[in-house]
Design brief:
Distance between the termini: 81 Å
Number of helices: 24
Strand content: 15-25%
Number of strands: 19
Length: about 750
């Protein structure tokens, strides 16, 4: 029996790789499959985006712009249609695609290190990156790996001296996310001959241009908006955000239908302010310019310092990324997938990687909410600490190579002279001069058609007026001179819920900015639709009397709501009609900003008349913790203090800034309840109740016509692509002549 066991063991060993490298690459995909197969952490953000597009028949980059370049967004779109109606299935497929991509990235990373270091070190660095918790976690919801895969392949192509392949891969990586465009600099340093340099930059440009061509032809404004909308964003989760006083995240808290508009027109829709991250007003208005100039300056310094060190191009890839990130205004948790890889490429120091990982995990934990632990109360401290640690790592890493290569900057003059020699040769080549002039001319003519559209007043109209709304009568606004595809955004200066319909019938979307605390948007209601006819009548009425609160929930399902005031009390009658088979929720919100100290107190006095007692909660938005805490109302005279525990069992408000208070009432299916709100005071300041049957409000209506390009635009765009292709091929073919000329 013992001999049989030994033979069985020896036989089994033949199925397992003895080599450490083979063992790692055999087990890593299996480990990822197990982790990503867990139901923990399944989200809905990506699915919701694709579902919205599908529901509204919108085509990305044609009807509206997206937050990422096309490859970084469209790659997951087939997964939605494959798993339509099944969000969990979509996210398992999403994880599978990202898991497969990260395995490929790890494999390429090993090949890169194997080409520059011995086998054992290559495995050590690869394993260190691949098992980072932040990389594994962020890869479940991030699309960074879609850009990282062609970027790492491009770095490997540099090592293998394949300039054409490198250029194509860098173009594809940049079409996933913008950061990989930086790698064109080390590629130009790595490839020594001018022909190779022209090949890499030429193929990069042509790849980017030809993939972009369909989008530029169909709707250049939507495509351009994809890249320029980041310019109006504020800082987030960086040292620069802390300096400017913005302590929140970088998510867009705007309605999705914003994306239908050209971003340049949206600047006329929204007023820049300090609490709207999408249209951010900097406290220090010189800071964005300083950051951009710093990026350019330090990237130039690194490039010149490494210009005569082609064998260190791989390290330079990492240093340039870290330089860009140090002076970039924002940093999201998903960046961990890329940043950790570029750090290990730049330094090959596991201690620095471990410290960076600490900052990444602190940042991830700061946004995580688990009821089992009271981690949300230290959100601000965790986030600020992670930012400081990360900034220190970036700065420390970048100081060393500048110090070590500072003497190489003396060659900068020779590099500039060499560049001028190439320019001089080009100016003496008639074919290159003619093709360059034609490229500029056709590009200018194409751009002129877009600018002509933007400067025509009829293509973006603003209608301003006042309207009196009541509960019992519809008020009308007539919209005329429309065309099919026109985008119409209506902004009403009210916090009252407005019922609306359009004749002829069309789907109307409703939206609001900053829905968590309504900062800057409490008295703003937005409606949106796309025109199918030349003329519409917009009919409006208020769904309830004007009250001091904003109704955030209650008018979308089968809940019947009646609100009135009586002797300074607010009477809210709720009836669930029992149609949709669900319980109904009614919620009213009130903006109130204050710091919570020992004397903080919210007092609410109410009477509930109901056969089945409803669930009543008092919601408080904590800006310091970036969280909406809910407190169960246990009696008719309820007082909330800094020591009152939330429904999760923790008292987290003390010392924090709050900005919103809301009352939430949930009644069961087919039941009714009457809430008599007698008093609501915050820090002894009593909110005055009223219920007015009509409201005079102002409105602004923004109408943007869809871009319809004239024939000349398509002709010049086609010629531009044709001529720039010819010019690049001409440079590559004549590269030897440049060498002869300069020598």
């Amino acid at each position: 029996m013992h001999l049989k066991a030994i033979k069985l063991f020896k036989y089994a060993k033949t199925f397992f790789p003895r080599d450490k490298v083979a063992l790692f690459f055999a087990t890593y995909p299996i480990a990822l499959l197990v982790i990503y197969g867990s139901p923990l952490g399944l989200g809905d953000e990506w699915y919701n985006i694709y579902e919205y597009l599908d529901k509204h028949g919108a085509i990305p980059y044609l009807d509206e712009r997206e937050g990422y370049p096309p490859i970084g967004f469209l790659v997951y779109m087939p997964l939605y249609h494959l798993c339509k109606g099944n969000p969990p299935a979509f996210y398992y497929c999403f994880r599978f695609v990202n898991g497969l991509a990260i395995v490929m990235v790890v494999t390429i990373l090993y090949a890169i290190f194997k080409s520059t270091a011995d086998r054992s070190k290559a495995l050590k660095y690869t394993v260190a990156y691949s098992i980072l918790p932040s990389v594994i976690l962020a890869n479940t919801y991030s699309n960074d790996v879609i850009a990282l895969l062609p970027a790492t392949l491009a770095i490997y192509a540099m090592i293998k001296k394949k300039p054409k392949l490198c250029g194509i891969l860098l173009g594809l990586a940049t079409l996933s996310k913008g950061f990989p465009a930086l790698l064109i600099v080390p590629a130009l340093i790595k490839f020594q001959s001018l022909k190779e340099k022209f090949e890499v930059i030429g193929l990069f440009s042509l790849t980017f241009l030809y993939v972009s061509l369909p989008f530029l032809a169909l709707n250049p404004l939507a495509y351009i908006s994809t890249f320029i909308h980041h310019g109006s964003r504020g800082p987030w989760e960086t040292i620069w955000a802390l300096i400017d006083g913005y302590n929140s995240h970088g998510g867009f808290l705007h309605p999705y239908f914003d994306k239908y508009f050209y971003h340049g027109n949206l600047v006329n829709v929204y007023t820049f302010n300090h609490y709207d991250h999408a249209f951010y007003l900097w406290k220090y208005d010189q800071l964005p310019g300083i950051l951009t100039l710093s990026q350019i300056l330090f990237i130039a310094i690194f490039s010149l310092a490494y210009a005569n060190h082609p064998n260190e191009a791989t390290e330079l890839c990492g240093f340039l990324y870290l330089t860009y990130m140090l002076f970039f205004k924002g940093y999201s948790t998903q960046f961990a997938v890329s940043t950790s890889l570029y750090l290990i490429l730049a330094t090959q120091q596991l201690k620095l990687l471990a410290i960076l990982e600490l900052s990444h995990m602190m940042q991830i934990l700061s946004w995580n909410y688990a009821t089992q632990i009271n981690i949300r109360n230290i959100h601000a401290h965790l986030l600020a600490s992670s930012i400081l640690i990360r900034t220190f790592i970036f700065a420390y890493v970048l100081i060393l190579p500048i110090k070590n290569h500072f003497s190489d900057l003396k060659h900068a003059t020779a590099i500039v002279v060499r560049f001028l020699e190439v320019i001089k040769w080009a100016l003496n080549n008639k074919r290159i001069i003619i093709s360059a002039i034609l490229v500029v001319l056709t590009g200018f003519l194409s751009l002129a058609q877009i600018c002509n559209y933007l400067h025509q007043k009829d293509n973006f109209r603003i209608l301003i007026g006042d309207i009196n709304l009541s509960q019992n009568k519809w008020a009308n606004i007539t919209l005329s001179n429309l065309e099919r595809g026109d985008k119409i955004l209506i902004k009403l200066s009210t916090h009252t819920w407005v019922e609306t319909y359009v004749t002829p019938k069309v789907v109307i979307e409703r939206g609001v900015r900053n829905p968590c605390n309504f900062k800057g948007s409490f008295n703003e209601t937005m409606l949106f639709f796309r025109a199918e006819a030349k003329r519409y009548i917009l009919s409006l009425r208020i769904a309830h009397p004007k009250i001091p609160f904003r109704v955030t929930d209650g008018f979308k399902g089968d809940l019947e709501v009646n609100i009135e005031s009586n002797n300074s009390a607010l009477i809210i009658k709720l009836v669930d009609k029992g149609v949709d088979g669900k319980d109904s929720r009614f919620r009213i919100a009130y903006p109130y900003e204050t710091y919570v100290d020992d004397d903080f107190k919210i007092n609410m006095e109410c009477e509930v008349i109901a056969a089945s007692k409803p669930v009543m909660l008092l919601d408080v938005f904590d800006e310091t913790d970036e969280w909406l805490y809910a407190f169960k109302i246990t009696k008719e005279n309820f007082t909330l203090t800094s020591e009152t525990p939330s429904i999760d069992g923790y008292a987290n408000l003390r010392g924090d800034l709050i900005s919103l208070v809301a009352l939430s009432v949930t009644i069961k299916e087919g039941t009714s309840a009457t809430i008599i709100l007698k008093n609501l005071s915050i820090n002894n300041q009593t909110i005055k109740f009223f219920a007015e049957s009509s409201e005079l409000l102002s409105y602004k209506i923004y109408i943007e016509k869809s871009f319809r390009a004239p024939e000349i635009y398509y002709i010049t765009l086609f010629l531009f692509n044709l001529l720039i292709t010819y010019a690049i091929l001409l440079l590559i073919q004549n590269a030897k002549n440049i060498i002869t000329c300069s020598s």
